[in-house]
Amino acid sequence: MGQSTFRGGTHPYEGKELSSESPIQVMMPKEELVFSMSQHIGAPATPVVAVGDTVKMGQIIGEASGFISANIVSSVSGEVKAVEPRLLSSGAKATCVVIANDGQYTPVEGLGQDRDYTKLSKEEIRQIIKDAGIVGMGGAGFPTNVKVTPKNEDEIDYVIVNGAECEPYLTSDYRLMLERSEELVKGLEVLVSLFPKAKGVIAIEDNKPEAIAKLQYLTDKIPNLEVKVLKTKYPQGAERQIIYVVTGRRIYSKMLPADAGCIVDNVQTVLAVYDAVCKCTPSMSRVITLTGDAMAKPQNYEVKFGMSHKELLDEAGGLKCEAEKLISGGPMMGMAMYDLNTPITKTSSSILAMSKDEVAACEPTNCIRCGRCATVCPSHLVPQMMALAAERNDLDDFQKLNGMECYECGTCTYVCPAKRRLTQIFKQARRAVMDNSRKKA
Asked: Which of 199, 320, 384, 390 is deepest in the core (most CB within 10 A)?
């Protein structure tokens, strides 16, 4: 086995106490729902419904349009009002199917029925995961059926549930580990059954003792499952870090976890697998954390895909004071939200409302060469040198400095005493390198 932590990282203010002790509440949508066809990495789904069509809850409304793509399923019943481009929380536009919710939630046939996964073949389980439209719900959005279909399944010896939830303020995975722990273990058993030599590991940071104790109790008598306790540190939940900590193996940007014999899935993704395989329920909802010092009632909500962020915030009690910054995701890797009239998708994780925009208040100054950024970088890079190369648009030098190994975790920016926007610089440089590669290809 690996270590309890990794070299580098940092300890930002956690902020989890705001929402961690409140049970998940279910939030039902009202009228219009907007389903983006781009809720995953890869090719957008292709709409398979037209204006005027009546759809049922659980019906596929967008079909995967390539190997790296995913189905989109309606989370309500109602009438298709439009198929048109709409704004997403990222600021981009995507083709969306707009459905008027009839409030009846009429299901497709068989929705919610119990199913014994042990009577299914591996191919049937993988097909169910594909049909259900399940993707990585930790933020990346990689289609799960592709992830669980590696070139050589005999070489997979670890299936890891990423329960670290190291991003500050977010507590949705923690609440699910407490409230749906039995289903989480069953979902892991389903995934482990796909790989003849694999053991299942639930990796959790040590700031979640209740979840650790409950899951240790549930896995104690299951021979090929265990709970791995990790040191609380950011970014402990990054895929590369969690693989190293659990197994001692290292992966890099040109490797997949499967190349190191690992499959890694987020808590909500594993629960989506359980729902699809064992309860005949496709991917239609997720738990989202509403939190921050400007939030009136910090809380976790189970929300149907397609619901508006604004409707969710209004129904949850709104803000208690003016928020200078609204973030989709956590403060380290999330994105600023400029419009709440955007739909909740499979990769939406939170609305973080901050009364002060601390980043805007900080004016960047020149690098003082203190080296703190290199000390905390979990990828063992030298951010100050990478920033120099990126700022002079020397993309060749940026790549020679292993700039493409950066996964934009934000630790360097967080510790920089000069308040330099390092992560933003690297994001732009990495995008430019990938754009150039696509042009050459």
From this structure: 390
**What is the per-residue pLDDT for 90?**
84
- pLDDT at position 3 is 58
Say how far apart CA 272 and CA 186 lie, in whole Å.
11
Q: Do residues 111 and 73 lie in contact, with contact meaning Cβ atoms separated by under 8 Å?
A: no
Task: Give the pLDDT of residue 360.
Answer: 80
Answer for the pair 134, 273: CB distance below 8 angstroms, yes or no. Answer: yes
> What is the rounded radius of gyration, in angstroms, for the C-alpha atoms of the chain?
21
Query: Counting beta carbons within 10 angstroms of the beta carbon of residue 439, is it exposed (0 to 12), middle (13 to 18) or buried (19 or more)?
Result: exposed
The b/e string for 255-270 (b: 16+ C-beta within 10 A; e otherwise) is eebbebbbbbbbbbbb
SS3 243: helix
Identify residue 257 by its one-letter amino acid code. Answer: P
**pLDDT at residue number 31:** 84
Pairwise CA distance, residues 286 & 213, whole Å: 24
Supply 195's token pair: 């790989």
Q: DSSP strand E in 298-361: where?
A: 299-304, 325-328, 335-336, 350-354
Pairing of strands 199-205, 158-163: parallel
List Cβ neighbours of 307 (8 Å cut-off, separation of 6 or more): 27, 29, 33, 343, 344
**Residue among 84, 291, 266, 22 nearest 166 (CA):** 266
CA 54 to chain CA mean position, Å? 31
Partners of 36 in beta bridges: 96
Residues with Cβ within 8 Å of residue 271, at least 6 apart in sequence: 176, 180, 183, 184, 187
Structure confidence at residue 300 (pLDDT):
98
Strands 72-73 and 60-63: antiparallel
**Is the dihedral angle over the CA atoms 336, 380, 437, 238 positive or is it negative?**
negative
Per-residue model confidence (pLDDT) at position 139: 78
Output phi, psi for 235, to 5 deg.
-100, 75
Q: Which residues pair with 382 in a beta bridge?
A: none
Which residues of the chain fall short of a pLDDT of 50? 1
- Interaxial angle between packed helices 181-192 and 267-279, expressed in degrees from 0 to 180 and rounded to the nearest 10: 80
